[in-house]
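quick one if you have a minute, typing this from the bus. theres a chain ive been looking at and ive put its sequence and its fold in token form underneath. please have a look and point out which stretches look like helix strand or loop to you. anything you notice is useful, everything is just below.

***
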Amino acid sequence: MSGFDAAAAIESFWAAHARGEWFPAAWHDKLTNEQAYEVLFGLMARRSAAGKRQIGWKVGLTSKAIQQQFNVHEPVFGCILDSQPSGHAFAPGDLISPGFENELCLRLGKDLSGSITPDEARAAIDAVYPSLEIIETRGNLTEQLALALADNAQQKTVILGTPMTLLPHPETVEARVIINGDVVATGTGDAVLGNPLNSVVWLAAKLAEFGRSLKAGEIIMSGSFTRQFPIRPGDSIRCEFSGIGAVETSMTTA
């Protein structure tokens, strides 16, 4: 889109969101992914000015299963503005077409910026949480990826279990996804770009393209071990990560 006016686009998206239009029709097929991130940063700045606080970042579309599910071929990022403790129960009206992904959430103990190595990423991480990312399907991600990025890559909130020290080999951690008592999927950390640490490496480099960096105290959702699953009223969801712990959430029927 030539002559892209970021300020005007941010204002347009902000107005659309205010009326409940998350993927504005006027912007279908009109943004590059880089322009979409500019819109995202502008919208996040407005939400911060309205009282929200960014607590971290999500890296998405990292596993082959997720990439195949949504027909994409590279990771994406979004901003985290909210978290809930393990055991949190949602009401059906709390979420828009919700789903979840099972992930390791990494907390930074120091700043990171630009080109870093996996060892530098590991040295910067002071805790890891078993976690569930709660997403909302507010539009067609497969057909309008750029609009999904501008709308914060489906992010709604993060469910966090008990933090612990990062294991020596997070790529070997196994996740068991359990819905209503049934194991519906398993996966290992190497599904996340070969190692969840690589999500931190990728994110630090990607943010540097926009003049941004990772800060101590921020959390990073590193990416799902398996495909994404929907959440339906009455569902009870649990994910167990070997050597790390478990995390749970649910949705009431009313």
Summary: Residues 61 and 75 are 5 Å apart (CA to CA). The mean pLDDT is 95. The radius of gyration is 17 Å. The helical segments are 6-18, 33-49, 64-70, 118-124, 145-150, 196-208.
